[in-house]
Amino acid sequence: MKLILYCILFPIMTYANMANPWIESSSHSVLYGTKNCDVIKENIFVTLHYGEFDKEIYPTFKIKYIIESGVNQTTPLLFIGIGLSENKSVSVNHEPVKILPYNDSQIRYIKNEVLNIDKEHLIYFIAKLKKGINIIEVFYDASLGYSNKEFKREYELQYSLYPSKFWRSFGPITLQIPLKNEFRFINSNIGLPKISNGIAEWKITNLSIDTIQLVISKKYGILSEFLFFLSPSGIAFLFLILAFYFHLKLMRVKKIKQTFWYSFIFFSMILLIPILFFIIYYNSFHLIGYYSGQSGMRNRSSLLIIFTFPLLLLFYAAVILYLNQKTNRK
Fold first, then answer.
1. What distance in Å separates the CA atoms of residue 163 and residue 7, rounded to the nearest whole number?
2. Could you give the residue ranges of the DSSP H alpha helices within the chain?
3. Is residue 228 a contact partner of residue 152, using CB atoms and an 8 Å limit?
4. Residue 93: other Cβ atoms inside 10 A
5. Burial 129-152 (b: 16+ CB within 10 A, else e)
6. Strand, helix or coil at 238?
7. Which of 157, 208, 253, 269 is most enclosed, with most CB atoms within 10 A?
C-alpha cells in the first residue's frame, strides 16, 4: 500500500510585480495517511534564521512522525514540496533514505482526487516499516510569506492539517519555535503559545482546522522603531520643515539682500528644496530597509512623484515669494 508524504504548497501567497505586494512562501502539510497505520503523534520543530544575503527570515523544519504500523511492509513514500530549497532529506527509523526519480506527473490520493505536479517538486523513496512503532523524520528549508509593501514586516507560516483525515487515527501535534531574543510572536489561529526558555510551544489536539497559521516578526532596535514611526513621508516632511525654516532665516538677513549671491541662493533654494524633498523621500525606503535589515523595501510611487513634483514646486515658490515680498515691505 502506498503512503503519501504530502507537503504541498497551496496558492496562498503569490507575487506579480506591482499587482500583488506579497512574496511567495512555502506551506506544508502532515503525512498523507494509510488505513492500516496510526500516527501516535507528530512533533514539528521550526528553527528561524536570517538569509545570508537578503537578511529575511527563513524557517528550517524538522518534523518527526511516530507511526504505528499494523504489519511489516516495504512502502513507497512520496514527499511533495513546492518552493522548498535543495537542502532536504528524509530518514526512516533513523536510517537515511535514498531519494529516487519519480516518473509520473499525476498523483492520486483517493479515487476522485488527482494532483498534477512537477516532477522536480517530488521526493520519492522506498521505506521499510516494521510492525509496531516507526519514526519518519523529514528535514527541509522553506520560506515565509510577507508583504513587500509594509515597513514593519510580518512573516506568515502555514501548515496544512487536511491530510490527517486519511489516517486510521492521528494523535496530537506539538509545534515548537525557538524565538530567542531575535523574533517576536504576533498571532495565530491556534491560540497563544506556552513560552519557556525562549521557545514557543503549541499542543494541537483539535485537528478540525484545515491549516495552522502563524504570524511572526523580527525584534527591531530603537532606531528602527523610530524610523518606522517617521516613515519615508515623515522623514521627507521633517527635511522640508527644516529647509523652510532655513529659507525664512535667509530672508531676514538684510545686509546681503541686494547682492547677486543672495538672489542666486534664494531662487536656487526654491527649486532645490522640492527636488531634495522627493530625493529624501525616495531614499528613505532604502534607509529604513538598511537599519531594519529588510531587503526589497522600495518605493512604488514613481509616477506619483512625477505628477506631484510640479505641484509642490509651485506651492513652495508661491509661499516663499509671498513671505519674501511681505518681509521686504517692513
1. 10
2. 222-251, 260-292, 302-328
3. yes
4. 14
5. beeeebebbbebbbbbbbbbeebe
6. helix
7. 157
Which residues lie closer than 8 Å to 168 by C-beta, 6 or more apart?
33, 34, 35, 36, 37, 38
Q: Could you give the CA distance from residue 252 to residue 110 in angstroms, rounded to a whole number?
A: 84
CA–CA–CA angle 177, 179, 183 (5° rounding) = 125
**How far is residue 28's CA from residue 163's CA, in Å, rounded to a whole number?**
11
Partners of 41 in the β-ladder: 66
pTM of the predicted protein model = 0.72
Closest CA to 175 of 211, 149, 122, 132: 211
Q: How far apart are CA 104 and CA 255, in angstroms?
A: 87
* Residue of 61, 78, 80, 4 whose CA lies nearest to 37: 4
Provide mean pLDDT across the span 209-236. Answer: 88
pLDDT value at residue 209: 79
Helix (H) or strand (E) holding 233: helix 222-251
* Cα gap 312→320, rounded to integer Å: 12
Grid coordinates representing 322?
509671498
